[in-house]
Amino acid sequence: MNAIGVDVGGTKIAAAVVTPGGRILAEARYPSAGPRERLLSSIARAINEVRDGMEVGGVCLAVPGFVMTAQNKVVFAPNLHPIEGVPLKEELGQRTGLEVTVENDANAAAWGEFRFGVGSEVDHLVFVTLGTGVGGGVISHGILLRGAQGSGGELGHVTIQADGGPLCGCGNYGCLESLASGTAITRRAREVASEKPGSALGRIAVERRVLGEDVTELARQGDGAALSVLEETGTWLGIGLAGFVNVFNPEVIAVGGGASKAGELILAPARREMYRRARSPSRDLVEIKEATLGPESGVLGAAALARDGSGEYVLGS
Amino acid sequence: MNAIGVDVGGTKIAAAVVTPGGRILAEARYPSAGPRERLLSSIARAINEVRDGMEVGGVCLAVPGFVMTAQNKVVFAPNLHPIEGVPLKEELGQRTGLEVTVENDANAAAWGEFRFGVGSEVDHLVFVTLGTGVGGGVISHGILLRGAQGSGGELGHVTIQADGGPLCGCGNYGCLESLASGTAITRRAREVASEKPGSALGRIAVERRVLGEDVTELARQGDGAALSVLEETGTWLGIGLAGFVNVFNPEVIAVGGGASKAGELILAPARREMYRRARSPSRDLVEIKEATLGPESGVLGAAALARDGSGEYVLGS
To answer: Interior CA angle at A207 toward A202 and A209, to 5°?
Structure first.
């Protein structure tokens, strides 16, 4: 039986029918703008449109925010306020006739990589996504670690530089997110650009605001300033990953998200620093790799987390 | 059916027969000194002596070091070198006729608190032990997180102050262990004593080497210098715990080990700092408590991790 995964983002809703093997049979997209009622009806429309008469066993929504999985409610979603507190199982169940569950988007993406992507051969996977923020999800012993309420896997706000670290969006100092996100890369790139005005990075900064893509492109062209930014970011990332290696003893750490497009320019220093800080035998086993599903990890993971009426995963586990 | 738990420490071996309800029926102790052969025969003797004709379903050894649980081998045990690499299942199986398994001691203690102690009512428990070092173990969704090799749950070597943190025994800087262990307390106490020679702590330091117990006792008597050391330690502990709260969304964090005897003098600041750094709803749910089993968590947890011939826990799960 197939299942539907819905990736409810801050700007768009993507719904897909997914097979037990992880193939996407159909997709639908809607904007996610508007107040509560419009948002709910867009989600329902995406589900009903993509379903298009096919038999599906259930649907799961992946949502960027703090989710209480037992209640199928979103507690806090800074980029999607209208969805907060809505009883999604009931509201969307009525409009679609399907069994509806809700998960945090990074946990869903982690599960997608575990079922169909870079983690499909292992039982222990840590997934880290480097975007505007740093998100994550952990599969240990084949189980998605949701925690007691469904809020587990918040890897971005572990502290790695308590004293003197940069201010994070969450209000604290020195979170992994404040040092290794896409946002951290551009902030650091602007600092380095002004320290090294003669570098290619410095020359761009005179003309316009430096973007994350600029840093990656200039680093690939060999600009030392841009390279140093990614090297530094990778090192901070490695400090955080070392902690996860010690705690989870995973087989694979998958790194996804926009900033992971820098690939080895970030992953090589991350690997080096992880190895320096983590313990044996965990550090010897783990492989740090790029995630392979890209932006589709959300719908794929959500579909794989859809449950049927008896609470079983529709696509198996 | 009962099971035997063996706590193999750096100085002594404690074996106990434990009931499914967590009651200790008999105990035996031997020194753990000596080369490999003597150590193995002391462990076997402790098991056979404590068993004393009783029917038991299996035995588990809790060992301070890095354990590969699938192989039932200890990879690295800085305080118990002779045990490294020994095929314990076979060696001790022959001498006792019992099914033998091996676990890391902190993971076993965590499981003890989960089955019979402060975590017996919950499904999600983080256990942290503050002794010479900082050890730990995690139960998530009712499962002990051993990781791929059995080396998971190494909570003491997550980095919380990468740049400028103190040197840790593991060779890195700013591990949780370097800032919140019993060793960190005495190191900091000696520093504070020399900064504040007029304090009660300072006056003791003139006479002799300050010990961890001195700090707790003087803090209870209201000495500001000693109080500040525990407050600072608790704050660092809270920074580490905040990360675990974000990652595991646990119901309870249990703090054990010698330094936890300072109780609220450490736990109150730890709770405050955790709440400041962790995210909702996880930080609102979690309770930070003292562990309740004390030094017996080792044998109790080990017994509860003993398996029968078919791989099931003898005492249930």
So the answer is: 80
- Nearest Cα residue in chain B from A159: B160
Helix (H, G, I), strand (E, B) or coil at B106: helix
- Report the chain B residue with the minimal C-alpha distance to residue A144: B141
pLDDT digits 0-9 by tens, A208-250: 999 999 999 999 999 999 999 999 999 999 999 999 999 999 9
Tell me, what's the pLDDT at B69? 87
Instruction: Report the distance separating Cα A64 and Cα A283, nearest Å.
Output: 31
The Cα–Cα gap between B128 and B54 comes to 34
Is the same domain home to A143 and A271? yes
- Indicate if B177 and B271 belong to the same structural domain: yes
Q: Is B139 helix (H, G, I), strand (E, B) or coil?
A: strand
SS (H, E, C) B203-219: HHHHHCCCCHHHHHHHH
User: Any chain B CB within 8 A of the CB of A279?
Assistant: yes
Question: Does B315 map to a domain?
Answer: no
Q: Look at residue A167 and give its three-state secondary structure.
A: strand
Question: Inter-chain contact A236–B162, Cβ cutoff 8 Å?
Answer: yes
Using alpha carbons, select from A122, A241, A262, A255 the residue that is nearest to residue A188: A262
Beta pairing partners, B15: B6, B28
Q: Do A210 and A89 fall into the same domain?
A: no
- Indicate if A280 and A263 belong to the same structural domain: yes
pLDDT digits (tens, 9 = 90+) for A78-124: 889 999 999 999 999 999 999 999 999 999 999 999 999 999 999 99
Q: Find residues 105-144 of chain A whose CB sits inside 8 Å of chain B.
A: 122-124, 138, 140-141, 143
Q: Which domain holds residue A149?
A: 118-292
Phi, psi of B21 (to 5 degrees): -90, 0
Q: A12: how many CB neighbours lie within 10 A of its CB?
A: 14
A170 with A271, same domain: the answer is yes
Q: How far apart are the first and last CA of chain A?
A: 13
Consecutive H or E run containing A270: helix A264-277
Query: A314 lies in a domain?
Result: no
CB-based contact B103:B91 (threshold 8 Å): no
Among candidates A140, A154, A251 on the partner chain, residue whose Cβ is nearest the Cβ of B140: A140
Name residue, tokens 């800087």. B173
Q: Which two tokens mark B209?
A: 């080497």
Q: What is the DSSP letter of A168?
A: P
How many Å lie between the alpha carbon of A75 and the closest alpha carbon of chain B? 8
B237: tokens are: 């502990």
DSSP string, B45-93: HHHHHHHTT--EEEEEEEESSEEETTTTEEEE-TT-GGGBT--HHHHHH
Which A residues in the span 69-98 are in contact with B, Cβ-Cβ below 8 Å? 75-76
Question: Are B159 and A243 inside 8 Å of each other by CB?
Answer: yes
Count of alpha carbons within 13 angstroms of residue A287, beta-carbon side? 9
User: Looking at the partner chain, which of B157, B161, B240 has a beta carbon nearest the beta carbon of A163?
Assistant: B161
- Angstrom distance (rounded) from CA B19 to CA B299: 12
